[in-house]
């Protein structure tokens, strides 16, 4: 490991910036996907680029995902 020496004030500033970035990134990624699974699959279906088997696997995978289990009840309202 390489040792780096820097002034304590610079270290404290970098530490604050890193923590701010961590909080920002956590919030950003927490809210990244809020569409209901049905809408996500329907958006893929509308492109006419994917097979029925792929769409079925996509929906199954989304339903089994840890994200859906954790945030599934917090999805956004359906789009009009």
Short description:
The protein has 80 residues and is an all-alpha fold. The protein has helices spanning 8-30, 37-46, 52-64, 66-71.
Summary keywords:
single chain; 80 residues; mainly alpha; 4 helices; 0% strand
Question: Any overview of this molecule?
Answer:
By secondary structure, this protein is mainly alpha-helical. The protein has one domain (8-73). 65% of the residues lie in helices and 0% in strands. Helix 2 packs antiparallel against helix 3. It is elongated, with a radius of gyration of 20 Å. The termini are far apart.
Number of helical stretches of at least 4 residues: 4
The residue fraction in helices comes out at 55-70%
The ordered H/E elements are HHHH
Taking all Cα atoms into account, the compactness measure Rg is 20 Å
Q: Strand fraction band?
A: under 5%
Describe the oligomeric state of these chains in a short phrase: single chain
Care to count the β-strands?
0
Secondary-structure blueprint:
Blueprint: H1 8-30, H2 37-46, H3 52-64, H4 66-71
Helix pairs in contact: 2-3
């Amino acid at each position: 490991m390489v040792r780096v020496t820097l002034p304590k004030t610079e270290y404290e500033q970098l530490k604050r910036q890193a923590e701010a970035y961590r909080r920002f990134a956590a919030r950003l990624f927490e809210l990244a996907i809020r569409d209901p699974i049905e809408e996500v699959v329907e958006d893929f279906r509308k492109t006419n680029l994917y097979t029925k088997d792929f769409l079925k696997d996509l929906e199954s995978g989304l339903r089994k995902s840890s994200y859906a289990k954790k945030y599934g009840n917090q999805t956004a309202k359906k789009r009009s």
